[in-house]
């Protein structure tokens, strides 16, 4: 496992982050989730990402239980705040001081830790003044409940505004967590250049495009049983964007590229996002320990320029590049 600095900070994180968005507390049983976390630890992953909204707080609880007994100083634990949790009351969502303050305390209890290494705004909140949000984050850092602050799916101007306030308030905004893959490149035009300027890294989610870039979905054939595309708890909705024959056919054309490098298609996809020097880590999930053991082998892989060119040629105009696709809900959900 290789490690990279997160933003313009002294914090190092593993190139592969283990995340439990659609799995823990929802898609897989807790004992399997615990085995996946142990596989991640065995493979050298030190960075774990979750959110209070995942499985309506259950994912944090499962991760806290799975990491219990580990040396806390050897881990980087990340969580997030924004989306509705609990009983869905009027203040159970967003980035108000009230919701942030209550959410960090609840997350720490579920995660069984005194602090998180990174606390992230899960989306931008148009209904709360940014100054209020950033002051609440500053207070959490001063209280020692979070060491650093990050965001998720914020556009370039939002990052710039938040970074300026963080400097005024005396804390570090060091990361953004966007979707990024060979098929979804919307951060490249605006978010990445702005982030480089400001000293912000990307921790990217869905590097294998919800499993599509693994090559397991074949054009003209039904999705394999037990795959995300057959999951009625949310997985199928997320992957359906890419379940088109024209996409699946292009993915199959990547198989010889991966094979020539001694990689699986999933490893190629993960190595591809890590080839972007503004990406600090690629988030992977797993429903089986074997998936973790395979995917971590992408860490440390360097893709030659000619291979990157081949990939661009194969994917072609199927990649989504519109920077306007980086967006947050216009209104809170409750």
**Number of helical regions:** 12
Major sheet characteristics:
8 strands, parallel, barrel
- The global form is globular
What letter string, H or E per element, gives the SSE order?
EEEHEHEHEHEHEHEHHHHEHH
CATH topology: TIM Barrel
CATH architecture: Alpha-Beta Barrel
Strand content: 5-15%
The tally of beta strands, per DSSP, is 10
* Rounded average pLDDT: 93
Rg measurement, Å: 19 Å
> How would you write the strand order of the largest sheet?
3-4-5-6-7-8-9-10
Keywords: NADP, Oxidoreductase
InterPro entries: K_chnl_volt-dep_bsu_KCNAB-rel (IPR005399), NAD(P)_OxRdtase_dom_sf (IPR036812), NADP_OxRdtase_dom (IPR023210)
GO molecular function: oxidoreductase activity
Family: Belongs to the shaker potassium channel beta subunit family.
């Amino acid at each position: 496992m290789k490690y990279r600095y997160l933003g313009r900070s002294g914090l190092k994180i593993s190139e592969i982050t283990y995340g439990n968005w659609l799995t823990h507390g929802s898609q897989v049983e807790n004992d399997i989730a615990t085995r996946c976390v142990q596989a991640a630890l065995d493979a050298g992953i030190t960075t774990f990402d979750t959110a209070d909204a995942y499985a309506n707080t259950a994912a944090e609880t499962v991760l806290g239980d799975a990491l219990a007994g580990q040396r806390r100083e050897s881990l980087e634990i990340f969580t997030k705040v924004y989306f509705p949790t609990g009983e869905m009351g009027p203040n159970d969502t967003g980035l108000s001081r009230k919701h942030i303050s209550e959410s960090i305390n609840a997350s720490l209890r579920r995660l069984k830790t005194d602090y998180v290494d990174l606390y992230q705004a899960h989306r931008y909140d148009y209904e709360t003044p940014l100054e209020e949000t950033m002051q609440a984050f500053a207070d959490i850092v001063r209280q020692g409940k979070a060491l650093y602050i990050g965001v998720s799916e914020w556009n370039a101007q939002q990052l710039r505004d938040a970074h300026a306030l963080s400097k005024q308030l005396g804390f570090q905004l060091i990361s953004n967590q966007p979707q990024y893959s060979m098929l979804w490149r919307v951060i490249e035009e605006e978010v990445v250049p702005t982030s480089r300027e400001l000293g912000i890294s990307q921790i990217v989610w869905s590097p294998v495009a919800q499993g599509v870039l693994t090559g397991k979905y074949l054009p003209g054939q039904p999705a394999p049983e037990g795959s995300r595309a057959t999951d009625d708890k949310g997985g199928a909705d997320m992957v359906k964007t890419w379940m088109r024959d024209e996409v699946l056919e292009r993915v199959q054309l990547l198989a010889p590229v991966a094979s020539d490098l001694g990689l699986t298609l999933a490893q190629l996809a993960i190595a591809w996002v890590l080839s972007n020097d503004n990406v600090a880590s690629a988030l992977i999930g797993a429903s089986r320990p074997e998936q973790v053991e395979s995917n971590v082998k992408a860490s440390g892989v360097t893709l030659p320029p000619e291979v990157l060119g081949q990939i661009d040629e194969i994917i072609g105009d199927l990649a989504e590049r519109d920077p306007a696709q980086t967006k947050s809900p216009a209104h809170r959900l409750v």
